[in-house]
Amino acid sequence: MFLSSLLEPIKTAAREAGDTLWRLYQSGDYQEKTKADESPVTTADIAANDIIMQHLGLITPDIPIISEEVQLLPLAQRQHWPRYWLIDPMDGTQEFVARSGDFAVSIALVEHGWPALGVIYWPKEQVLYYATRGHGAFKQRGSKIRRIQVHQHHIDAPLRVAVSRRQPRERIEQLLPPGQQVEYIALGSCSLKSCLVAEGGADCYVRLGPTGEWDTGAVHIIVEEAGGKILDSSFAPLSYNQRESLANPDFVVMGQADLPWPKLIQPQ
């Protein structure tokens, strides 16, 4: 009951933040900056963050929040939290700046070290992806809601791999066995590519390069509830809030969970 009671208010928060991003995107009324780690950030990211933080403060004032756009507390102050919000106010800032429209709002609730609720909102398409533990994954456009599931891949069919528009494919190609037939599907935003796997539009997504736990929190529960998995590039589980840094390892978003993934994706 606790998770289900949170779902609609969190969907509202994600929509409001995302629609603000979309208005700023269309008007061009934002400024670009560079963080200390040289990743991009805009005043639109901050505006979306403020909206989400305000909503969460009203919905669950006693639950702490970790956001990409807020300074991270030391591990000693957060490692024993039984639950916390994990948010990325705008996943895909590079896509926002590059004008592709493929950026999204990501909000997750992590309980006892594992995502239990996840909401992704794609402003360009006005689409919500969401899931709560044990209740399936869903895609919503307007009032139309449908349950989503990963694609059941036939081993002789080409492997459909979601890839970035911004990153070279050579590193991905090196992970695939010789002779593997592949169809590449280009899309922006880490979370949107993961949701593409969750709804069966791709068989997998291999992420090589820097990400944070806020990039996987919401989509992790969505992918799992749709029948898939997210594991690191050595096929070990990811972790949440267990280290000083929230940097993720390279990871693989896998659709059909019982495929022989170590044969299909071969880490270097």
From TrEMBL:
Q: Which InterPro entries match?
A: CysQ (IPR006240), CysQ/Inositol_MonoPase (IPR050725), Inositol_monophosphatase-like (IPR000760)
Chain residues that bind Mg(2+) 2: 88, 91, 215
Topology with regard to the membrane? Peripheral membrane protein
Its annotated compartments are: Cell inner membrane
Q: Which cofactor does it need?
A: Mg(2+)
Catalytic reactions on record: adenosine 3',5'-bisphosphate + H2O = AMP + phosphate
Q: Which residues bind substrate?
A: 68, 215
| One GO molecular-function entry | 3'(2'),5'-bisphosphate nucleotidase activity
**Enzyme Commission no:** 3.1.3.7
* Residues binding Mg(2+) 1: 68, 88
Q: What is its main location?
A: membrane
* Entry keyword set: Cell inner membrane, Cell membrane, Hydrolase, Magnesium, Membrane, Metal-binding
Q: Which family does it belong to?
A: Belongs to the inositol monophosphatase superfamily. CysQ family.
Job of this protein: Converts adenosine-3',5'-bisphosphate (PAP) to AMP.
Under which name does UniProt file this protein? 3'(2'),5'-bisphosphate nucleotidase CysQ
Organism source for this protein? Alkalimonas collagenimarina
Which gene produces this protein?
cysQ
